[in-house]
Amino acid sequence: MAPQVEIRPQVFTQLFPNKIESKVLSRKPVPRIWNLEDGFCIAALKSEWYKSMFAIQSTFFHTSIDFFRGPQLDYRYLLVPLTTGSISSPMGLGSDSQPVSVKLHGEDTYLADSQQFLLEYALRYDDDVPGTYYVGTSCRGEDHDSTHLNQFYHVECELRGGLHEGINVANEYIISLTKTLLEKHGEIIKSFAGSTRHMTDLLKLAARNGGKFPMLPLEEALALPEIKGGEGIMWEYTVTGRPECGRSLTRRGEQALVKRYGGACWVVEMHHLSVPFYQAYSDGSERSTARCGDFLLGLGEVVGCGNRHTTAEEALAALGHHGVDPADYAWYVDMRSQKPLQTTGWGIGSERFLSWVLQHDDVRDIQLIPRLKGQTCAP
């Protein structure tokens, strides 16, 4: 069970004195120097932004560790390798990113795009462990932009239970992280964001919803008046020319939902062929929707959460459905034959979350040391 971070609207003044009606101030400038390549390191040392980011990222890390290792969760940390033979974004229907292939010691392998598979595996070691987690770097091969990085700082966990158990833990994590950053770095955040009102508003939103955030199925989101008629603007077909593979929200569509629901919301039950094969089906034999969800905040999706297939038969059926060669994931299927287990996992990219904290529009400015495709940067 997740730690209970109870925040009632009537006690906000005691929790955050002088932060509730935070007025918008003039904002310190953000240097926007991520594209200086080898000139970045000296320029960044002269910047108040990067000095502040160093402090905020440290708090992000320690707050994350404290959340998972606290007595109410008591999740076990997994030390993970940099490479993997089984990418969690396979080249099949629903793949949402490109893997990074490397040759290491003469062998072809990949830099890990996520540690989800290892977390699923590790959770089967010990029946008494309620969950496992890690904090580290994930690598993706697509071109970088204002919401995508080639190497980003990832917090991931896997826990026993269904989708809503996973979402509840993610909600508590977001609340805990927001509260701690506000307490420890409120003045710094205000100097760059102009206000901390967005953070207190998020906590109020959770308080009004019993410690949770608004939630709606994707189909309901797509039917909303501001979304419905916006093909190519608010939503798009996941696979061009194949409407049977489902639809997904664009960044603009995600931001419209964030506005409608008061700053944040969950969108759940995506079309199954628009997400990777490993997400469980939410509608049984229909096989049209997935038991997964995205938490939308700031620039758009910040947390991705999904319930996994329990049995080998379910995983095999999904691999076939998505056109992925089962031989590439034989170990994943065999693991379920050996130990069927219902688990749910989620991950959050720190740079997207901190972009929201600082009310900034480009995740590339959040990295202390840029690592971007097509650029060199020392050190």
UniProtKB/TrEMBL annotation:
Residues 50-372 form the Aminoacyl-tRNA synthetase class II (D/K/N) domain. Keywords: Aminoacyl-tRNA synthetase, ATP-binding, Ligase, Nucleotide-binding, Protein biosynthesis. InterPro entries: Aa-tRNA-synt_II, aa-tRNA-synth_II/BPL/LPL. GO terms for molecular function: asparagine-tRNA ligase activity; ATP binding. Pfam families: tRNA-synt_2 (PF00152). The keyword Ion transport does not apply. One of its GO terms (biological process) is asparaginyl-tRNA aminoacylation. Transmembrane segments: none annotated. The keyword Protein biosynthesis applies. This is Asparaginase like 1. It comes from Colletotrichum phormii.
